[in-house]
Amino acid sequence: MHEMRRKDRLMPPKQAQTLLENALYGVLATSGEDHAPYGVPINYACVGDTLYFHCASKGHKLENLAANPKASLTVVENATLIPQSFTCSFESVIAFGTVSVVEGGEKRIGLEALILKYSPDFWEDGVRCIERTGTHTTVLKMKIEHLSGKVHE
């Protein structure tokens, strides 16, 4: 794994983990058999050192992950334009890891984590949604192998 060049912008690990847990969405980057990059915005939930997200049972993301399960997820928060300095201030995190499909109890853990993050006030409705559509939903997990955070003020 490459080390960050601008060490003066390195985010402390605890702050990076918190930003990852709380960010609204991230961009998942994958590549498939053709090695073409593919970045797609996703909702996700962080449970310890594991990210959970869901998708349909077919598609570009799953094709790429079947060919190459390595991926990264990037989140950017608190971005502010500083036009007079020709830059932006921001906080960002990149999580690197290996993605796999989960089933059974872990699949439910992932779906419930998504409800807790995005719709905690609608828990009962979310559980009913899992029971109604969970069998038609693919749940993926990315085990975080490396986490890097950056702050530019």
Average pLDDT over all residues: 92
Structural class determined from secondary elements: alpha+beta
* Straight-line N-to-C gap: 25 Å
- Work out the radius of gyration: 17 Å
Put simply, the count of helices is: 4
* Strand content range: 35-45%
Tally of extended strands? 7
Question: How would you describe this protein?
Answer:
The longest helix has 15 residues, at 104-118. A hairpin with a 5-residue loop joins strand 1 and strand 2. This protein has helices spanning 13-22, 60-67, 104-118, 123-133, and strands at residues 26-31, 37-42, 45-47, 50-55, 70-82, 87-102, 138-152. It has a seven-stranded antiparallel β-sheet. With 153 residues, the chain is an alpha+beta fold. The chain is built from four helices and seven strands.
Task: Itemize the secondary structure elements and their pairings.
Elements: H1 13-22, E1 26-31, E2 37-42, E3 45-47, E4 50-55, H2 60-67, E5 70-82, E6 87-102, H3 104-118, H4 123-133, E7 138-152
Antiparallel strand pairs: 1-2, 1-5, 3-4, 4-7, 5-6, 6-7
Helix pairs in contact: 3-4
What can be said about this structure in brief?
This protein is α+β, with helices and mostly antiparallel strands and 153 residues long.
